[in-house]
Amino acid sequence: MNILNKYLETLGLLYLILLILSITPVEILSAKGLNENTSVDTQIINKDLLSSSRDVVHIILPVSVLKDLHGIRFDSLIASSCDDNNTLIIPKLVPRKFFRTFLSPINAAILMPDVDDGILNENDLLILTVPIPRSGSGKDFSSCPWNVYAVKHGLRDRYVIKLSQGAKIFTETGVKILSFTVGVAIYYDHDHNRKPHLRDLPFDMELLAKISDVLNIERPKTHIVFPNFAGEAEKAEIFWNTWLNTIRERLISLKLSDNIIVSHEHREGFIYDPTNDRVVAEILDKESEKKISEEFRNIYPTAELIDGGGGPSRFYEFVLITLNKTILTGSRSVNIYLGYNIYSLVVFIRANSTSSSDSYLGVQINVIDTNTGQIVWSNSYTYTLSSTPSNIYLYPSIPFDTTRRFNISITYYYAGGSYPYIILSTLRISKIWDNMPTSETSKAYQILSVGIASLRPYKVSDYLPPGCQRAKASDMLDPSVYGGAVFQIFPEFPADRQGIIMPSSISSLTVDSDVMNGLYYDSLYGSSPILYIDICVRNPSSTSYTGTINIKIDGTTIASQTVSAPPLPSFGYVGFTFLQWSNPLGGHGHFITIEHNFPSNSGVELYIDILIEYQYAPEIWKETSYITWAQMKSAFLKIQMTQDSRIWTLYKSGIVVESTAFGDSDLESMIVKHLVSTSDYPRIFEIYLAVKPPSSNSIPGCVIRYREGTRADYYIGAVVVAWSIISTGVEFLSLVGAITLSQPVSLGMYVAGNLITILSMARETLSLSITSDGTYVCYWSPGLNNYRAAELELGIQYSSLPQDTSHYIIIGANVGWYTRPIIFKIPSWPRSQILASAPFDERYPGFYGRYPGEVIYG
Amino acid sequence: MDKALNKNNYFFVFSFLTLFVISFVLYYVVSLVYMIFVSKISSLFEYRIGYILLLIGLSSLTLLLGDLFLFIYVFRVFVFKKYFQKSLLKIFLKSFFSSSLPIILILVPYIVVGLGGVFNEELFYHPAAIIIYVYSVSLGFYGLFVHPIYAPYAALAVNRSLEASDDSFIATYRYMRRDINLLPNILATSIVVWIITTLLTVALIYLIPFLSNTLIPVPRLPQDLLWSWRGRWYEALNNMMPKYYNLIAGPLQYLFYAYIFRKISMRKTIR
Questions:
Q1: Which of B140, B68, B155, B151 lies closest to B106, judged by CA?
Q2: Is A743 in contact with B56 (Cβ distance < 8 A)?
Q3: Residues of B in contact with A733 (CB under 8 A)
Q4: Does A319 touch chain B (CB under 8 A)?
Q5: What is the second-level CATH architecture of the domain A441-625?
Q6: Are B19 and B254 in contact (CB under 8 A)?
Q7: 3 state SS for chain B
Q8: Nearest of A763, A735, A713, A757 to residue B143 by alpha carbon
Q9: Degrees, nearest 5: CA angle B234-B237-B240
Q10: Cβ within 8 Å, pair B201-A585
Q11: How confident is the model at residue A738 (pLDDT cuts 50, 70, 90)?
Q12: Shortest Cα distance from B149 to chain A (angstroms)?
């Protein structure tokens, strides 16, 4: 409950931020724009694009005319445009009132908008943000096909709203009269217990403020944040509620329901064809359900009958951020690997114009079959954006197929006018897994992996050798979400280059397939993973080389291939695909070794891209529990470094490896630092560093450099003598028998012995031990102490080593924490990465600021 | 005579077997307690500081009360050579409870703070730390130095109550006071039994190394996870769990105790 309260407060803070940004007189949103180049480019880039551009308008509907919505949960509503099956609309509500509440994270009272119980009544007003074609779609809307997304989520009731010519709509510049017909359908569900499928804030205060400006209603001059609950806050509550009521009255006086035809429709069921993601029949009555179902099954063998409300009960959701706080001066593309079993996909874009003049944003979406490379769905939209942010929701059509994998490619491009500013764009994926791996999770939302990329590809546009294309589009995860490792071999490459570039001077590289998203891999229920390794070989010299590339898993060679490395501009390529290659050990992945035998001084580079796909069974998660899942990061990385390393920087779960060379090629000291910090949950369980020194003369030392948190073990100081007496007694009793008895037979002594064992676990421990193969393990555990951050350091001093000496470093940590909402993944980043350059900041835009614990949304 | 002898033989055989069965149950219950709590403690998802206290509290309660009960049993059967009669059940329960009180009182903080540390870890964090680091000294002292003497001493007093059919709550303490002169005998017997049992256990393990295995197999983690939090806890579990030799040497130690006590203290004890 404490964690629940904590996150409710955080959500309240998000409200506050949005509220402040939207309502206070200072225009914060435009501040960033003012720092950038905001010169308006009036050059129209593509006339065709602009003519088909959609204006984002707002339709306000009084719920009084939609009688069947009375008593419906507001968050069950979803709407769509009749002329485009793939445009979704999430209705917003005009708040019923503002109420005062105290927000402890900021130690202040604020006014929050409220919708009471969220059940619609006749006094409510819905705001629909609808992208409509400039000159209308030309359709007559006598039929509005049932939206596929609505069908798949079990919504069998709807209102079709036809706005005829003369109907009033809201735009940036004011109330406009429609010159053509617009059709919108609002879908809903009578079931109060259904979960909202697209959770979002029920209001858009910025939009409401804009509407009030358009209606010439003056906003109150008072603030909405106060140090005290009473006094000024009480007065402000009255002012703001008066403002709200004035807006409501004015909207009602506009008679917005004139020139609107509303019709209610209900369907008993639908025949849905998952292969093509479309509705092939709508069933109007129960009696004909069976007959229609059978008829269509003959034509569409994979067709399914959807005849119940509430939507699928067993699915999980993922939200990925695709773009954030970006001024679009050209185009930006994101390619995301979706994997199997996609039930639905929603692209969300919140964007506006960087200046007061319109801006044109283009969005191109392609859904690609991963195996064949074929585009199965494609569409392109252009939107006219104003200074008021617009929320756009797109539903790309994707077959629901348990045997096919898909990628999605989203391209955002500047299409004219002033530059578009993408405030936030996300991709929300819903997946269904038919056979839930564990019975306890059958009713819960499952979290399953879409795939893993523990190692990210380099940025294609910059460092991929020209012409070195992927043989298959198999690795499309966006690093901003999964936070893949940044492995940088040469320091001259900037830190934001991702992926592995292995120079010829390194003959063997071993990496670990990390657990993705912190999901705990269940080796009993997860399936065998598929491993893809693509290697492009770039040879900058003028001599051709031929070499062999070996792939090892956990030390065993599983594949070997010869590849030639011709001089540029040609390149070599080898791809490996391993199906059913192995089941990972519980809790972490495998060591994957890539070896080559190109001459070390040849200058040949291997560009390595690895994708491993796992299926996971999540930890047990109850719907009512806010402890959704705990993220366990256990990272093992074993790298082999050659003697002539300078500074090697490796980022994986906060590991910094520094090796300092003194002199030309002698490695005289090496320091490995491992910094771990948590975000929400104040618990680090352990950190370890292990190194196998190249010679027996080098004995490492380790030290815990830094700790931050709560200590409990200072209590022990008072009784340390007493404990030593007890432990001596126990040891004595165990040793007397000449062979150490792990447990005395006498039960009282047994209890004392176990107490000693448990106490040893409860103490903060720092130890350096050596394994049978000569690896030194520096291990630190906080015991019962709660630390939020700690740094372990392992140092080795050498004395004159031969050239090309190599050594292994093993690094690991276990950290546990909780996240609250299923749709947000809040990672843990070590302080060093966060304090590092901007690219790491960008990788988790919208969730983290520069420091852990600072959550920023949008 | 033969009949009486036969009846006697059956009685002793039956009692002997019962002793082993009770010991078996005791050790297996404790094993389960260890397994359950260590799996929670070593899980990053489920860890709560309270589980550590519950681990100590519940296992110690089971072991110490079980030990006391077994002493009472062997004293009744092998020293006083009597059955447990139904009519004495009420007296037995009262006496057992009153003799258990010191044990219960020592362990109550573990249970209470342990539960608090499970349901509200933040609030009970420091109390739990104090119990584990500071208060546990008392349990350690008790288990190591006091209980090996207290258990047989209290068992004797309970049996006195049964003999006298004295069902008052303080009867046990009264008899303890009365038999205070037997404390040196009890101490001496404990030492002798400890020596014999330890030597016997060492011999057993030497001859049959399998007896060093845990009653319930402890999962073996892969080599590189042995450094991990979970690995260390599983290693600790492996050290803490009752072993097969406990099933043999455990019951035997009570028999030895009863026999030696009866021989040393026959004149003073048995009337």
A1: B140
A2: no
A3: 144, 194, 198
A4: no
A5: Sandwich (2.60)
A6: yes
A7: CHHHHHHHHHHHHHHHHHHHHHHHHHHHHHHHHHHHHHHHHCCCCCCCHHHHHHHHHHHHHHHHHHHHHHHHHHHHHHHCCCCCCHHHHHHHHHHHHHHHHHHHHHHHHHHHHHHHHHHCHHHHHHHHHHHHHHHHHHHHHHHHHHHHHHHHHHHHHHHHHHHHCCCCCCHHHHHHHHCHHHHHHHHHHHHHHHHHHHHHHHHHHHHCHHHHCECCCCCCCCHHHCCCHHHHHHHHHHHHCCEHHHHHHHHHHHHHHHHHHHHHHHHHHCC
A8: A757
A9: 160
A10: no
A11: very low
A12: 9
- ipTM tops the 0.90 cut: yes
Residue A226, beta-bridge partner list: A109
Give the residue from A735, A751, A777, A784 with the most B CB atoms within 10 Å of its CB, the best one to mutate: A751
Where in chain A are all domains bearing CATH 2.60.120.230? 315-434
User: B146 to chain A: which residues are within 8 Å by CB?
Assistant: 748
Q: Where in chain A is the domain with CATH 2.60.40?
A: 630-711+746-831
**B140 to A554, A740, B41, B65, B109: CA distances (angstroms):** 45, 20, 21, 16, 14
- Give the number of other Cβ atoms within 10 Å of residue B141's Cβ: 17
Pairing of strands A54-62, A125-133: antiparallel
Q: Is the pLDDT of residue A815 over 60?
A: no
Report domain extents, chain B. Answer: 2-269
Collapsed DSSP state (helix, strand, coil) of residue A21: helix
CATH fold for domain A315-434: Jelly Rolls (2.60.120)
User: CA torsion angle for A128, A133, A139, A145 (degrees, to 10)?
Assistant: -50
Task: State the average pLDDT over residues A340-346.
Answer: 80
Q: Which of A688, A715, A753 sits opposite B134 (nearest CB)?
A: A715
Tokens describing residue A174: 């004011």
User: Which among A690, A698, A650, A640 is positioned nearest to A792, based on CA atoms?
Assistant: A690
Query: Cα(A452)–Cα(B26) distance, rounded to whole angstroms?
Result: 47
- Which tens digit of pLDDT belongs to each residue from A73-116? 887 889 998 888 889 998 998 988 888 776 655 556 777 777 77
Contact A6, A682 (CB under 8 A): no
Cα atoms in the 13 Å half-sphere on the side-chain side of A216: 1
Can you tell me the distance from the alpha carbon of A324 to that of A318, in angstroms, rounded to the nearest whole number?
A: 17
* DSSP conformational letter for A435: S
Report yes or no: B10 at the A interface, CB cutoff 8 Å. Answer: no
Reply yes or no on whether the pLDDT at A419 is more than 70: yes
Q: Does A740 touch chain B (CB under 8 A)?
A: no
**Residue A714 distance to chain B (closest CA, Å):** 9
Strands (E), A570-725: 572-578, 591-596, 605-613, 629-630, 639-641, 649-651, 655-661, 667-677, 684-692, 701-710
Q: Which residues of B touch A755 (CB under 8 A)?
A: 56, 60, 136, 139-140, 143
**Amino acid identity for residue B112 in this structure:** V
pTM: 0.45
For domain A630-711+746-831, the question of CATH label 1.20.5 is answered with no
Whether the CB of B120 is below 8 Å from some CB of chain A: the reply is yes
Look up residue A772 and give its DSSP letter. T
Cβ <8 Å between B133 and A713? yes
- Which pair of tokens denotes residue A66? 């939609």
Nearest residue on chain A to B151, judged by CA atoms? A748
The answer to whether the CB of A652 falls within 8 A of the CB of A637 is yes
Q: Report the distance separating Cα B94 and Cα A296, nearest Å.
A: 77
Chain A nearest CA to B164, separation (Å): 29
Q: How far is CA B104 from the centre of its chain?
A: 13
Q: How many angstroms separate the CA of residue B5 from the nearest CA in chain A?
A: 33
pLDDT digits (tens, 9 = 90+) for A215-267: 889 888 887 777 767 777 888 888 889 999 999 999 988 888 888 889 999 98
